[in-house]
Design a protein that fits this description.
Length: 389
């Protein structure tokens, strides 16, 4: 089904950037309006107004509840902790498309990067999705966002499920984050990371060719997939969305990028383009939460070492950097809330004891909201890692 959105997209091919990357802004704005319920654009013509209105009514309730119960109090609390001279470049490893939390912690970010196993997905699905599938995906989106916003963290299972929907779930989570924080998308591009760490934007022809090649490889593969805990192979892997405050066309553009990567050492040894890209940013502010405690493991030493060399300030739950690495590297760690141990972990090195001691040795600082995982006894907890003064 050829739609008005698709026609607009064809008109934009190759014109948005000097490097010939294709701009998918029409589809991005259509999904922002119809699925994330953002902005005041008219509902795109192909979509049933009844379905979109009902979906947006429910999403308004989801957003309102999230802002009242988490985003607003968390933003106020974290603002009192952030240094005034904090870098405006933010890195969020293991973050999925969780732009909502990132903008809560860093509302003034000018460049924000999330990294996870989930591909961005093909935004062009909004052009041709069938009415029955649209209703199904909108219901799934609402469910996943409600779960994310209620628990203040996303599970790998829910992130992977969203990324396998017809509508690109990772992009949807990012667009919902813009809606929560009164921002709007201005451009949407897909990109590769070059060996020198630079970004190269992709044309629609390149993307289509890659998608065709990958589809052929999948047909030839006899490997049985029993789970989704791997980095997704997709032509539409890495996405860049430029955005600005809603209704302020003169505001400087800000940049959000989502990168697909397995950050374990084996993958970083085989292909270090992501680390090279991150190093080019210089000092950065960092957040991690609900990161499966991967930074505790020696299998993730490369991304941990990158953080230790480039962090200007970091906010995390206990899935952040263990004290045994942070302190020798010249950092101090401040604790908030309570921590009695992780509620799940394979911990052969007893790293949990470091964190229990860290919280025990410091004065109790109350934390009125959950940040990432709860501890083993369902307590809220949060940790700041910063250069020792």
């Amino acid at each position: 089904m050829r739609t008005l959105i698709a026609a607009l997209a064809l008109a934009c091919i190759g014109t948005a950037r000097a490097d010939n990357g294709t701009d998918f802004t029409p589809q991005g704005r259509a999904m922002f309006r119809a699925a994330a319920c953002g902005g005041d654009d008219a509902i795109p013509e192909p979509f049933p107004k009844r379905i979109i209105d009902a979906h947006c009514k429910e999403m308004a309730s989801v957003y309102s509840s999230y802002k009242k119960s988490w985003a607003d109090p968390a933003q106020t609390f974290i603002a009192a902790l952030r240094p005034r001279d904090l870098p405006t470049t933010i890195v969020y490893p293991f973050g999925g498309g969780d732009l909502s939390s990132a903008l809560t912690a860093f509302p003034d970010a000018l460049e924000l990067t999330t990294i996870s196993l989930e591909a961005a997905g093909d935004i062009r699905a909004i052009d041709s999705i069938k009415r029955s599938q649209l209703a199904t995906d909108l219901d799934a989106i609402t469910f996943d966002l409600r779960r994310l916003y209620r628990s203040a963290h996303s599970t790998t299972k829910s992130l992977q499920a969203a990324s396998h929907s017809t509508l690109p779930g990772t992009i949807m989570m990012a667009l919902a984050g813009l809606r929560v924080h009164d921002m709007e998308p201005v451009s949407l591009h897909y990109f590769d990371i070059e060996p020198d760490g630079s970004v190269r934007y992709l044309s629609v022809e390149e993307l289509d060719q890659r998608a065709t090649e990958l589809a052929g490889k999948k047909l030839d593969s006899k490997k049985k997939v029993t789970h989704y805990w791997y980095e997704q192979t997709s032509a539409f892997a890495n996405v860049e969305i430029q955005y600005r405050p809603l209704g302020d066309p003169k505001a400087p553009l800000r940049t959000y990028r989502h990168i697909v990567a397995n950050l374990d050492d084996a993958h970083m040894d085989a292909d270090d383009r992501v680390l090279t890209h991150l190093r080019k940013k210089g000092k950065v502010a960092v957040m991690t939460k609900a990161a499966s405690f991967l930074l505790w493991y020696d299998d993730f030493s490369h991304i941990r070492d990158y953080l230790l060399k480039n962090v200007a300030w970091m906010i995390s739950d206990a899935s952040g950097i263990p004290p045994s690495y942070a302190v020798p590297a010249g950092f101090e760690q401040l604790t908030y809330g309570e921590f009695s141990g992780p509620y799940f972990i394979i911990d052969d090195k007893n790293t949990r004891a470091e964190f229990v001691k860290l919280w025990k040795d410091q004065p109790h600082r109350p934390l009125p909201f959950r940040f990432g995982y709860p501890d083993a006894e369902k307590h809220n907890h949060l940790m700041i890692t910063r250069p020792k003064t």
